[in-house]
Amino acid sequence: MTNTPQPRHELLVEKDVEIPLRDGVRLRADVFRPKGGGRFPALINIGAYQKDKLWVPPPDLEENPNQYMNWETVNPLWWVPRGYAAVRVDTRGSGKSPGMTDPFSLQEAIDFYDAIEWSARQPWCSGSVATMGISYFAMTQWLVANLRPPSLKAIIPWEGAADMYRDFAYHGGIFCFGFVSNWYNNHMAHHLLGRRTQDSPDAFAKHWLWHYMRDSLDAGAYYGRQARWDEIDIPMYSAGNWSGMGLHLRGNTEAFMRARSKHKKLRIHAGTHYHPFYAGEARQDQLRFLDHWLKGIDTGIMEEPPVKLLIRTGGGKGYQWRRENEWPLKRTRWTKFYLKPAAGPGSEDGAAEGALSDTVPKRSASLTYPASGMTKAGVASASWTSTALAGSLPRMGVSFETAPLASDLEVTGPVNLVLWVSSTTADMDIFATLRNIDAEGKDVWEIGQQQQPIPVAKGWLRVSHRKLDPRLSRPYRPYHSHDERQWLKPGEKVQVQVEIWPTCMVFRKGHRIRLDIQPRDGVGSAPYTHYCADYNVGGNTIFTGGSTASHLLLPVIPRT
């Protein structure tokens, strides 16, 4: 292994540089590069978060605040001294770039392609370019990678949704109303009500949110907003976050499993959306990866096992890294925990109505609960609070728990919830939550992306979207086609598979694994809350045992 070079370059800043696009539009960018002569690789990102908007990081971030910090992007004061240029671009229709804003679109990907090739042609650039950044700046990386810019040599999509239907807007076919609408409107407000600029008079003028709600099936409208894994063959360092359920984690694991790239790495950390990216060990991994692919330096990173996982043990502290050779892990014991109603009804204090057992219940049974996910203001209420309060209302639905665990149990990997269900309505929304309950009956919370308390994992499915894609589905990870609706008939029993996003947790001895199944968002959902359709009037039923043995398939990792 060769050590990465020590910092030795001084910083030169060029503001509001124009990048000409193929259709004549000129984007605005800031370029941070080493002062003096020489040619250097470029790290580029493009997004709608305004390149001139200063981010003041929290005091515990492992990067010092400075006048060049910008939300979710690299710190030039760390990268430029190490021999890289950083190119920060306002996407079309945002910040100082003119045009019509359309985040996560084919047009934005084409613009990104042009910006990458422009950077490679500059006299200060070595001709090698990498994309890098968190969230928005990761999502755009997947989309430009579809187009294969010749000068793009590597990508580091850090916590990036890759499918704007499944990962971003429609979880299991249920619209992520809370995040999608608030995210878009918030950034429209930044442009139109904040420190306004007249450089982009059409900022956020497109009926973007309307189109996302109107196109509620994945029937072609999302083609330009999805990673096409068969076409992505570039070296990648895909970094996910166990806390990213509801937005980013799925994109990073799908990339590692499905992209054509021969050279790819997967890292999954935990905690907030921003601390891990700027951590010292993370920057060293990023630098070693980029030095290998953009500078030809033998850093040894590609000889290391391709998977690096932070193993969660509960409570958010003291977690340790572990290296693995594949994902999902080859030594996984795929273990079925069968749903079984309890002997008596659940109490008002939130006690579970059922059990999770490793043996199949011989007798068939069922549990029925109200189908409505709306508030006490009334079913199908016209009040906006019926959706605004999602995730903060009393529990509905049913819950199942294991007995106290006899020893520590590690669960690491994708999760599949297989249910037999029926409803008195034409459809049914399933919100599944995995929780870690300690010996005193209290939740052991993790640190969410926005520093909020969150449970272990979540999954969602609208039952009319139960159709599977047989080519892409796996026993441990169902893949729904979302291209048609298969309505329920009243009382009709159907089997559904609910994709619970990948997770990692060592459930401690004496703890219980709890599964909540609800008609609306459960604990720890905000800000990724959903629109519960107003057809849900009546009752939903879950069947257990016998020929309708519903179960939770968990990736149990044997103790070494």
β content, as a range?
Answer: 25-35%
Specify the biggest β-sheet: 11 strands, mixed
Based on the structure given, which CATH architecture of the largest domain is correct?
3-Layer(aba) Sandwich
Average the pLDDT over all residues and give the rounded result. Answer: 93
Helical content (DSSP H or I, runs of 4+): 10-25%
CATH homologous superfamily of the largest domain - what is it?
Answer: Alpha/Beta hydrolase fold, catalytic domain
Shape: globular
Number of domains: 2
Number of helices: 10
How large, in whole angstroms, is the Cα Rg? 24 Å
Instruction: Return the structural class.
Output: alpha/beta
> What is the CATH C-level name of the largest domain?
Alpha Beta
Question: What is the count of β-strands?
Answer: 25
CATH topology of the largest domain: Rossmann fold
Distance between the termini: 29 Å
Low-confidence stretches: none
3D structure, described in words:
The protein has 560 residues and is α/β, with parallel strands linked by helices. The protein has 2 domains: 11-304, Rossmann fold (3-Layer(aba) Sandwich); 333-557, Jelly Rolls. Helices cover 17% and strands 30% of the residues. The chain has 10 helices and 25 strands. The protein has helices at residues 76-79, 106-121, 136-145, 164-169, 177-192, 208-214, 249-258, 275-278, 280-295, 385-388, and strands at residues 11-20, 26-34, 40-47, 85-90, 125-134, 152-158, 170-171, 174-175, 236-241, 264-269, 307-311, 320-324, 333-341, 354-357, 365-370, 398-401, 409-423, 429-437, 446-447, 453-454, 457-462, 494-507, 512-518, 539-544, 551-557. The strands form 4 sheets. Strands 13, 14, 15, 16, 17, 18, 21, 22, 23, 24 and 25 form an 11-stranded mixed sheet that branches. It has a 10-stranded mixed sheet with strand order 1-2-4-3-5-6-9-10-11-12, sandwiched between helices. Strands 7-8 form a two-stranded antiparallel ribbon. β1 (11-20) and β2 (26-34) form a beta hairpin. α2 (106-121) packs across α3 (136-145). The longest helix is centred in the first third of the chain and has 16 residues, at 106-121. The two termini are 29 Å apart.
